[in-house]
Amino acid sequence: MTTTAERTPGPDDDLIMKVTDVEKYFPIMSKGVIRHHVGDVKAVDGISFNLRRNETLGLVGESGCGKSTTGRALLHLQPATAGSIVFDGHELTTLSQRAMRPLRRDIQIVFQDPYASLDPRMPVNSIVGEAMRIHGLWNKESTERIRVLLGLVGLNPEHGNRFPHEFSGGQRQRIGIARALALEPKVLVLDEPVSALDVSIQAGVINLLEDLKNRLGLAYIFIAHDLSVVRHISDRVAVMYLGKIVEIADTSELFERPAHPYTQSLLSAIPLPDPRRERARERILLTGDVPSPANPPSGCRFRTRCPKFANQLDDSQREQCVNEIPALDDRGMGHDVACHYAEVVDILA
Ligand SMILES: Nc1ncnc2c1ncn2[C@@H]1O[C@H](COP(=O)(O)OP(=O)(O)OP(=O)(O)O)[C@@H](O)[C@H]1O
Ligand code: SF4
Ligand SMILES: [Mg+2]
User: Fold this and answer.
1) Is residue 327 part of a domain?
2) How many whole angstroms from 348 Cα to the centroid of ligand 3?
3) H helix or E strand, kind and range, residue 170
4) Which end of the chain has the smaller Cβ count within 10 Å, N or C?
5) Which ligand is nearest the CA of 43, by number?
């Protein structure tokens, strides 16, 4: 028999989550009395990634590319249509909601809008303590624990009897974070946690999240539009386009050596601190709308907006983009890119 002490650590030992080929389709039904299944919104269409313990993985991409749907699938709030999500050794996709319940403690979510996500009729103490009650964990120490949690997120524990409207936006987001931490989770999905906040208070919440991650050994999935924030907080970054991950790499590698034309266009929109370089640099503008996830383009789904496809490829190369779905291939050092003609361009130099 192998004891824990004898066990040789495997390559996956530092993984808290392993996501493989996950799809989330929303059925489209015809109108009328007898409704038929006429298609699917392929919100997430076969994504794979790992999350290590105590790691922050940034998830970026335009509105509608499937970031929040991915987050909800990871929490099993909207179960995946296909694929595998292994969390801390447990396969989540086959669990019933009942069987998922004890694991729900370990994966928590913080939403974008601190105004909409807190019940205005409940005092803060009840909001933060609610999950402990739901999970049957309320005991005589819980009141003190709520005070500790409020202090941990930088709020005055004396203010626990106040209601959400008595707090500013940044403070409300801190309440949301305290609530998410109440059950001592291992993973937090942060769905645009600072997008609704004034720029002046975003930094305080970001610093708090970094501090909590280090103190509590948390892992984060950090969903955001703002690439500067993602660059600051993430260890690795995954770029999504129309339900797929098109590039994933360590943060410095992705920002310094982007290889997918979509990532390059996103990075070209980040303002450079040096005004001379900023004036001289070229933006890579994407034309056209994002296609519908109900009917994505064949082959590479970025091709209808890809500047490289439009300006640099010959006919036979274009044919490959139209006919073959590019695999997310490892270019070394964990830098994976899904493009037939991937080529590093230093956008931020
Ligand atoms: N319950 C649903 N039923 C049908 N379609 C849905 C549902 N939820 C999301 N979608 C669709 O799935 C796609 C992905 O949505 P999602 O909210 O995950 O995008 P997102 O990347 O989080 O966007 P944003 O940056 O605007 O928050 C969109 O086309 C959206 O309209
Ligand atoms: S596979 Fe072709 S269309 Fe897609 S990103 Fe690469 S060059 Fe552009
Ligand atoms: Mg979203």
Assistant:
1) no
2) 26
3) helix 169-181
4) N
5) 1
- CB-based pocket (< 6 A), ligand 1: 26, 41, 43, 61, 63-69, 293
Range of the domain at 53: 15-28+39-106+185-258
**Beta strands 219-224; 187-191: pairing state:** parallel
Which ligand is nearest the CA of 69, by number? 1
Distance CA 62, CA 224 (A): 9
CA 285 – ligand 3 centroid, Å: 23
Please state the domain count of the chain.
1
Q: Calculate mean pLDDT across residues 121-148.
A: 94
Residue ID of nearest Cα to ligand 1 atom 6:
26
Closest CA to 44 of 59, 29, 61, 25: 25
How far apart CA 311 and CA 84 sit, in angstroms, is 38
CATH code for position 193? 3.40.50.300
Q: 221 lies in a domain?
A: yes
The gap between the terminal CA atoms of the chain, to the nearest Å, is: 55
Is 10's pLDDT higher than 60?
no
Per-residue pLDDT tens for 232-277? 999 999 999 999 999 999 999 999 999 999 999 999 988 888 888 8
Q: Which atom of ligand 1 is nearest to the CA of 61?
A: 21
For residue 79, tell me if it sits in a domain.
Answer: yes
- pTM, entire model: 0.93
- Is residue 347 one of the residues assigned to a domain? no
